[in-house]
Each structure stands twice: as C-alpha cells, then as structure tokens.
Amino acid sequence: KWSNFEVTANCVDTEPCEDFGGAGGGVIPRVEGGVSNALVWDQVYFNPNVKYGFRHKIRMPLFGPRTSANAFFFEFGFDKSMFSDRIRAVAVEATPVASMVNCKVGYNTNQVGILDNRMQFEFQTRTEVGESAGIVIVGDVNCRGFVFEAPYILLDGSDTLPDDFTLSLGRQADQTPIIQLKAQETPIAPGYYKIELKAANPAGLVAYAGTWTFGTYREVNQYPIKYYIDNEMEVPGFTVDERMKHAGLYSVNDLQKKATGREDRPGYMNSLVFEFELNARPEEMKVMLLKAPHGFVFEDDCLGPDHDPRLHTDNNTVFGPDTEDFWPAGELATWDPLIWPRECVGDGRDASFRIPIGLEVNKRYAFRIRVQNPLKSPEWNKWTLAYNGEASDPIPGFNIWTSVGEPTAVPVSYARLPGTAVPIVNPVTVTFRPYKTVPAKPPSSLRGGVVRIEAPSTFRFVHENGKCQVDFRAVGDSTPWPKSYTDCEIAGASFTKLFLYMTGENEIVGDESGDGQDYQLIMYVFNPDTAEEAQGWRLDTFSTENWQDPESSLDESLIPGFAVHNNFWSFSVDNVPEQYDGNEIVNDVTIVVSFRDNVKDGDMITVYSPRGFNLVANPELNLCDNYRPVDASPDWFPFTGAPECVCEEIVNGPACHLQWKKIKEGKDPAFAQKQDIRFKIATTNPPKTPFIAFNFWRAEHHSSTEALLASQISKSWEINPQLANVDVAFANGYRSAGSQANLDFIFTPVNDACCLEIQAEYPTEFDFTQSTVFSNYDILLQEGSRMLINLRSPGLIADQEISIRVYNVRLGRGGGQTRWNLITYLDDLMTIPMDEALQFEGGFRLPGKIVLQDEPILTSAWKESALMYPVKSLFQPRVGEWASAEFRLSFSQAVMAQGKLIISCQGAGDQQGYSLRTDSFVVIGTGQIDAIPVLDESSGAIQATLKANRPATETALLPDTPYTVSFRVYPHNDGTNTWRFDTTDSAEGFTNTNDGETQGFAPVQNFLLTVTVVRSPPKAIIEVKLDVDQGTAVIRELLIIAPPGFQFDEGPDGCGDMCMPGQALGSTGRRTATLASPTGQPLTVLTGLRIRVQTPEQTPIGTGSEGIMWFVEGRSQGAGTTKGWGQGSGFAVTQMSGSAVYYAGVANLRATEIAFTFTLDVDAGSSISIVPPAGFLLTCSMEGSLKTISLPGGRPNCIDDPLQLQLLESLTRGTYAFGVTVDLPPQTPEVNTFNIIIQDQYNNVVDAAYAIQGEEVVDLGAEAPSLAWSRADPGQPSVITIGITFTRDTSNLKALLVTLPELFQHDVQIPIDVQNLNPRFPLAPGLDWADTEEPDRIRIFLDDSEDVTTIPADTYRFSFPVLMPPDVPRKNIWFISLCDDRTCKQPSDAQVLVSFPMAGFNLYDVAPEALRVSASGAVLGARGGGFDLVCTLLALL
Question: Is this structure's pTM higher than 0.85?
Fold first, then answer.
C-alpha cells in the first residue's frame, strides 16, 4: 500500500543524489488501479550516471510474501510489449517483515499418556531479541496436559542460541503450556532455530489438534502483556491418540536381511520390516504415518514405481523377492491387494501412506519400506507408527554400524608443510567408539580384522616402504597395545590410506548399546604444502583382512577434518642445559620465532608449551617464569611490553602458553617478517614425557580480527620419568648399621610398570640375599645389594602410590645417609625402563651402631650411701626405688656438637619401662662431656644435648671410643627390660642406635616386712613375729637379718620352725638366720613366721639410719639368687619401766645407802642382779646393809659380788624398791651406768634395765644421812628427824631439800613446827628459813646475808611433823639433797649437788633412834595436849 510520496535528495547511503524534479516531467506517481503494491510513473526522464531517489510511505503486510521473492522490482518500460522497449529492470531485496515465519511443532509420538516423548519447535525470527526480551511459545486449550522438561537439545540445521539465555517451562493460569526463551546480556540474533524438549503427553485423548502461537516480545517477564517485536504466528499441533495394540520392527534373520537389503551402515539406503496390529477397524481410507528417529530420510516418493517399489505389502516381496513360500502365515496376516497402499509421501523422517479401508482387527500385518540411514545412531533412537486414531508405543530402533558418538581427528599442527628439506611430521589422533567388534587374529590366520583410515587427498601418511608406525590404545590406558598386536600399512598412490591389521590376541571391542570403550589411534602425516579448508576423513572397520569383500564391512564413519593454515618462516625450541629429568627445573629454554607475515599492531602472538610444562611464575599477575629477551633491549616489542603467561589446569596439565595479546608498537609493520625473535624462559619438566600428541611446542600468529595467519610446531624433548614421592624407610622402626631390618620402598610411579629394581648404593655391604617380599610378588633376582621384584598383576599403576616392603634386609656397614637407585620396567624382561629415581638420598639415614662395651651396672641409692645404709647397700637394686644406671658405650659414627643422646627404656609386653631422671646425668670419656639433659614428658626418654654451645661441626663423641653414661632410673617392675640408645645430629636425624636391644637390669622384688613382738626386754630370749609379702617372687630360702646386738637363739631347737642361725652379715656384724624348707620346696606362706632372738642390752642405735631395721632377703636357692628383699621397722628394746638407782655421788663415800627401783609388767622373776659401774662396791650381806623396802617374801638370799638377790617369793606385776650399801669410787667412772636384771628360776631374763645412768661423783664433805620417826601408825601423826653429817666445813650450799616418799605429807602448820636441832647450822635469819609450801617436800634455806655461808663440820638434824599414810608406798625412799641454789625442788634437779636416799620405814616400825626422838616427842605431846585442851573447851561451849 503506497501513500505520501516525497522526493528526496538524501539517499540511504548518505551520498548526494538528484531528486525527480531534476529529471523533468511529472514526478508524482500513481498507484496502479487494482494493484495496491505497484507505483507507476507514466512519464519521467532520467540522465545517465546520475543517482536518483525518492521516499514513499507504505503499509507493511502481516507476513512476508509467500508466492514471490521478498524484493522490490524496478521496471523501465514495464508496460511495453516489445523486448527492446523494456529498457531496464532490477530486483532490490526488501527488508524482511518483522514477523515470525517457518514455525512448526513436531513430535516423536502422539500416544496418550506417554511420559518419554520428544517435541520439536522450529521458528524463524526476523528481529534481534535483546536483554529482557524473549521468545514465547504457548499452546491453546487443546494443548493442555503437555509437560516439558529441560534441558533442550539444539537440532541439526539450527542456528546457535546464546550460552546465557534462560529457558523457562511451565503453565499459564488457564493451565495451557508456555515455553519462554529469555535473552540475557547476549541478544538472540535473527535466525532459524530448531529445539527439542522432552515432553509428557496428556493423560487423556485429544481429538482436535491444538494451536501453538510463536512470538517475540520485549519485557517478556510481563507476558501475557505483549510488547511485540516480531508479529506472532500460529501453527497447528497434533492430536493425542489411543495406544495401538501392537507395533514394532520385525526381527529378520540373516537370510531375510540379505534378501530384503537390510543395511545398517551409515548413510546407506536400508530396508526395514515393520509389523502392527490395530484395536479398531478403519471406517474409511486413512493415512498411516511412520515417523523415524532424527537423521533418517524417506524418499519423496516412498511408494516407488512398479519396477522399483519402495514400500512392500505383498507377501511375496515383504521378506524379499519371491519369498511367498516362506511367509510366516501363522504369525502375520496377508494384505488383500485391494487395500495395498495407494501412495506414499516422504517428508524427511516422516512417511505417510494412504491405505484403503479393509485392515482387520486382531490381525498382525507387516510391510517393508526403504529409508536412508543417518551417519550415526540417533540419540532418541525410537520409531512410531500412527493410524486410525491409534499410536504405537515408541519402537526401539537399531544402531548404525559406525563409530558411536562423534569420532574425531585432532592434529598437533594445523600448519601447511614448510618448504624445507626435512618435512615436519604431524601426529593426528583419531578417537572412536566402535559399534561392531573388530576381531583379533584367528589362530589359523596371520591377520584378523582391519581398521582403515582414509585421509584427504592432500595429506600423506608417513611410512617407510609402505610400513607405518602408530600408537593404538584404549582410551584411559597408559600404555599402547604391543607392537606385535597390530600391523600398519600405507596404500594408495598418494599414500592417503592407512590399514591397521589385527595381528595379536586383542580385539577392538564394539558395543551396540553405545556405552562401549573408546579407542585412540595416533598416526603420523605430512600436512598439505598449501593452506586449505577442512576436508573430511573416513574411518572404516572390517571383520577380515579381505576388506574388499562387502561381507567383511563393519562400521563406517565420516570424521570432520581440520583446516590447514600457513606456517611460520621458522620456529625452534631448545633445552640448552640438556636437563631432561622429570620434575626438573629447566632455567634456560631458548625459543626462536620468525614470522612469514609482517606483524602488525593488533596482532596476537602465542607460544604453547607441551602439556605439563609450566611457564608461569606468578599466576595472579600472569608473569612468565624468568622471561628474558635475547639480543633485544628492552624487549622485542618495547611498547607492547613483556608477554603474559597463563596456565589452565587440566587432567594431564597444566596447559600453558606465552602470549603477546595485542601488539601495540605504533608502526607498520610492528615487526618485519622473516626476522628472528629470540628469547629465553624457564619451565619445569613434567613428571614424564607428555603423551605423543601433546609433546610439541606450538607457535601461532593471529591477526587483529583473530584470524589464524600462521602456526608451527616444534617437537619437545623426551623426559626421563622420575618416580614421585619417593621414600625409603624403616618399616618397624630404625635399625643400626649391620643389623637386619624390614624396609618400605614407597613411591608413586609416573608410568604403569610390572617390575622394580632396587640397588643400594651407600653405605656399602647392604645385602638382599636372604630378603623376602609379600607373597603376591616374585623375586626375579637377589644378589648382594641388588634386588629385582615382579609385582605381578596389577603391578605398578601410574599416579597410584605404592609401598613395597622388603623383609630381612642386611643393612649396610658403618651407617650414614643411604643412597638408592630405583628403576621400574615395563615387563619382566627388564629391557624397557619406565621410571627411575637414581642416586636417591631422600630416604632414611642409616644410624651407626652403638655397642655396649661392658655389662651395664645398676647401683642402688643405698649403695651410693653405704656409710649411711650399710645393710641396704649390700643388696641388689630393688623395684620401686631410684637407682643409678651406668652403661659403657661406643659409637660407630661420630656424634657432633648440638646433637643429642636419647635414652629410653622399654618393658616387656605391656609392662612399663623404667622411669628416668636427669639429675646426676653424666657422660664421661677421657673427661666429662658437656651435656644438657632434658626429660621428654611424653616418652619418658632422656634427651641430652651434647656440647650445646659449640658449633655443629665439632665432634662431641668420637667414633669407636668408649664412653660411660650414667643417670637415675626407677624400675617399676622386675620384668625384662631393654634399653634404647640413639644419637642425633642438629637436624634431629638419627646417627647411631643400638636398636633398643641392650638387655637391661634385673632388679629384685620389694618385699614388705612387718615385725611385731609382745615384749622386748633387754638380753631376753623373745619371740618375734615376721610377716613377709614377697609379691610374685618364688623363693626357697629366706635370709633374716636382725638389728645390731640381736642374737638368734642357738639352742637345740634353733631359732624357730625351719630357722637356723647363721653367720654375721659382713662388716655390719648383724646376725643372720635362714628359713628354708627341708624338702627344698618354695616358701609360699611367709606370714606369721615366729623366730626366737635374744635382745641386746639396749635398743641398738645402729650404723647410719638403719638402727633397729630388720631385713629379709628372698632367694631362689643359695647366695647370688636374690629374688627380692625388704626391710621392716623393728622394735625398741624396752628397758624395765620405773627402773632407777639413787645414791649420793660423794667421792670415796663408804657404806652409804644406794636404792634401786623397778616395775615389772609380768608375774615372774625370782632373782635380782645388779651390775654397777667399775669402782662401785655393793654390799647386801652385812648386817643392816640390805633394805628390802618393798621386795616380797622377807630377806632374800644375797650374794655381794656380783650383787644378786635370790628372792624367797616370786615377783609379780608391780613396782619394787630395795637398797644396799655401796662404797663409791674417788671419781665418776668412764661408763657410769647400772644394770638391773630380773631372772626366773631358769636364769632366763624376765626383764631388765640396762645402762641406768649413775650420778656424777663430786668431792663433798657430807655423809651419814639419818632418818628417825616418832611413830609409824597408819593415819597417825609422827615426827620425822632427818640428819646429815658434814665432815668438813662446807660453804657452797644454799639449801637443804627433804623429799618425802609418795603418800607421805608433812604436817607443818606453823614455821616453828620445823625444828633445827643443831644451832650451829647457819639458817636463814627470821622464821622463814623452812619452805613448807609443798606437802611432799621441805626446803631449809641457809643464811645468804653474806656472799659465802659456811656450814661448820658437824652433824645436823631437823625434825618436822608428818601424817602417816594408810599404807606405805612401794617406792618408800626418803631423800635429803644438798643444793647450791634455793630453787631446787626435786632430788634430780640441776641445783642439787648430791642426794642421799634413805630407805623408809614400814607401818608400825620402830625407828633405830627412838630413844633420841622421844625427847622431841614432848613437842609433839605439847602440841597434842594443847590440841586436846582446845577440843575440850569447844565441847564445853
């Protein structure tokens, strides 16, 4: 529709142009009557070579033209009838109408309820769909029930959708399906798109095909609000039919396949037999639709002419010509000729044929149809058949006999063959997955199946006399097939065909499921010598070497080829230092590049390293590793700068490249062609030689538009693969030089291998002769320091760490860092090495040997202090006690300063070893070695740093030199113990060891001993009870060691049951006894042992601190077999209680009284013996010399020297006192002690008191004390007269002290009750000269008015009243004491010079001086008379 014509001088391309006004004539066109799309200028004039233009408004149609070209036609003289008058005509392509076109909805099956359908949506857009816009496909109400699943599949013939678009599948509010393709940052360009989605069909029948609407819209998120981009287009969907009773591909046998022309190879015409059975009889002629999987193509006329039919229903031709006789009548029904299909129309993968009415139900029909195979098996490989409102189940298809998936051909180089004398060999890798198995060589033939590769005609396979080298392997295998398994030949005049014959036991395994094994064939070709576009390669497989026989054909595959580009002028890479070991750093790789074309600004230059060669120093900054331009300053591209290096981590990676991204030199050319660029870079070799196809350096030159201008490859160097993560370690702890050990050889192989060679280089004298390995391995060789092991299946697997344990290896001599050679081999022929680790010194350092020079010594703490512990020091060290351990050692390897000596102890089994202590730790050689010991709390070991402050190069311990090491130890048990000694250097590596095999000590058990007695009087035979806990020790003899002075009873009965007295214990003098079973049986019960011993006079002080300790030693049998010992606290010798001796210690005093007291705790004793100090003369036999005081039975029989009293009546429990006369020596004896011994009638000591301290003997003129009393009636008053004679003037006294016996009390009421009977006595002045404050004593004070008070020589007496007790005390002794200070209170006070004891009197006794005392009785009587008078007066009142 034309309107609003306007002449313009502005042409579309902005070039000036003339308007129609300049052409002359009328310029306003008219619309041709009845033809709204034609403009007519009836008359107009134009000049030649002038551009004219006009503008005119038109109305766009809804869709582009469908019956003519989409173009504007200009015709000059269009209405003329003569050709000569029709001057010019031109067609100008019109802008497409902004409308969706070529929309279509397809499907794979239209059966109701199918969940695994595939639906196809095809559409063409006219306008770009930008961000937030999208393509929307919606179905109407008859399309409800379809459910779609992502992802989508882009079908063949479709333009490519952007990677970032989003696909959304769902339902609208009215439950109609909706599909949205929303553009993101990348717009969806105008194009023709074909997508496929997995779909579930509606669950119910759909009798009327729905309508699908395709459209593009802005702000697609607001849909169904529509902002149109392209006009919508509606297309029909499809009905959803019920399930057909049966349909499928008929299974034909081999004869039928041949007869029907069944051919499953790719691209071939094929004949397929289908069968079906209907649910209902058709009522009219209808169309049957056979839908094939994608890729199959039916012929347009799929019925075919009579001479060449393509659709067969005749029972004589369905299974091949003239096969009527073989028709499976019982299985298939025959077609009536009247209902044979009338026509068949093929439309790609659909075949539609019209069938007249007449097909019956419950009958199965078959037909054969011709179709062209795709080049590969479809992904959704199912067929469907639809007829009469019925749709079949999806029918499983068949696989195309081809490499499954996408076979590929990938070259190393895309460069054309350079015009050099030595052409560049290009490895090309073909990867394929066979559908059919290529057989191995039969036993009766030289060859089996064949793989044929055909290259494009411009390529040439590399060969030598028709023979070629290839690498063939299953993908994933680290090694190729053995060369003997294949035979490679090149054929063809131009050497473009390669034949790989199977000559071994392997077959190439196919898998018709498509899930089989991928194979990889690497071939070597020469690229064309000119650049060319990509051309296809071909791969065919055959079952026999007679590949020309059609019967042997298996798979056929077309392989996409690759384009060939220009090459560099030159390109080389050189490993200058020739460093080829795996993982080795190569600092000097020289690269030389020369361009065939000039390098211009914007170009990009890239050098790719072989797989696994790292070029990056700093990944974050993309810095190349030590990039250095050679002969260029500052760089080859000074304004562009240094290249960047980037690595991508991939499986066999990294994949790295060096790149000048965009050249920016500001000149043209930026770098001239055919000029060398030379630079160096550092890299690290990969662990092994990269795979054949990856072991090349490649240079590329791209233009600013990223077009590849040139490329070139340079073969890299071969890598010596180095075993990774290598370690050689002790398996069960380190061992010393020369010993046997189990070793672990640990490493990660780089390549698969079967066998391992081990060589011990250093130290010398390693020996594998007696070594063994795991039973799954085989030892191929073992001689000296070399061993070969076959690990059998699966052997060594690349990149899988393995640990191989070798048992019973004799270690090398001397020690030191070990050095090994480890080499792996491909097979047990040991001719093809795979990986290596040569001169490997990263394993263990073999410690030198620590040798024990003498037996170790364990010294108890007691022995170290033998003077303090004379007995304990004689015994062996004991469990549970600290002791000193001493070892004398030598070291085969020197120990350096700052190194450590480590000492630990291990118990047997789960028993605890010894605890160690660092105090007293010392190492002594010719002198003491400086050492700083530290106790490791976790292990309990001593770690002593030797010469810590000296340089590590200085020797601390010389080799093969004895050293004594001692330290404190604590045995926890008596079990077996071993000692480990190790030395380390400053790096903490072990330099020497004794392997922990030094046998330790045998400490004895710690017995528990308890000693108890009932009584322990001095010098008495007593019974001692011993309780011994010997723990687990088994003993047969028990040695008992008594404290000093104790004697075991040597009577006829011995010292107890099984007890025999023995000898003294060495220098200790202690007596011993032995308990042993007469039969030699073990002593199992050592509790309640009763032995008899004689006590010493006094509790022994002992030597050291052992005192009264008792000891027992358990022995196996005889001396030197000690099992344990123990000590127990003994008991004190209990001196008879209350034992005392009283006398006045006056020099040369004669016939003075001496008194003895004691207390018995038993009812026994018939004699009393007194042993005085030397110089004392005791007398009991003289008249009046014996005072029995409280002894029983009257006057005993008496022996004076030695003094012994034979009592007439036995003693009972109680306190006793008696007195005798004594003559004193002139001075104090050196041993000034008394012994009182109580014996029974058998002279056995009942009790005794030894070493009763005597008085000091002083020179004093005093003697003859006297005691008199007025009466001795119980409870009655009496007057006591005490007297003392001074034989010379005495002037050193201050007081006299009179002490009364127990129970007596004086009755002094007033001072004058104490009478001085001799006025010459120098009393203190006044009436207070007598101190009577205490009832049991009276002190008489001398005059102290002068500095010196002298008592004149004379006899003095004093009297005072007392009250008689009801009974006299058993210790009935009176004392008169001479004091040099008034403060004396007791006879034993320090202020007392001497005390005179006087035997008291018994009740009713008459005093010897009664006649003289009678006079004083008047005083008592006067006091008594006065008392009586007072009482009488009180009575009268």
Answer: no
